[in-house]
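Subject: Small secreted protein structure
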Amino acid sequence: MARFSFFALLALAAFGAAAPVARRASDDDSCSSSSSTKSSKGSSASSSAAAQSTAQSAASTGSFTLLDYADFQISDGVAGDAEAEANAVFVDPFANVDLATIDDQTVDDIQTMREAAEDAETDQFNPEIESASGDDADALQVGKIKNKVLKLTGETMVLKIKIAQAEAAGDDTSDLESKLAEEQKKLDTNIATDQKSAGATSQSVV
């Protein structure tokens, strides 16, 4: 009987010694799980911040893409919708975008495309109109007006961006606003001319 009691005591002692180990193992597992959860949350937050930064960057530049003149010219087709067609090139890509946040490279790209439209007018439309006659000359003249709308829309867009940036920086905008008013007047005149010729055949030079 004494021998049985002795073995029973040994068994109880062994069980008591093992229990804390089990508890410690359980505690370690819990800490590991908590650490893993925190790490996962941190990674998720980092990814979310990166995505938000990318979205903000895209929003600040709009969806404008530098194109060759042949890929954005609007002089084919007919007269009447030059304003909307030019806006699709230079204005619509910046819908709902704070113009003050447009980066310098995008402004340069708009300016490059505007200059391409101006070069098309002076180097191609003018000499081709001069050498053409009849319906061909008329169609080229209509195309030239549409190209003027395109060129001036690009110019006014650049000025609007510069004004927004100057205002954000607290700089004087009077000179820019005077220039914008001047270019806008030219644009309005050519839009009106295009609309008066609505439906007339328009010819490009590319």
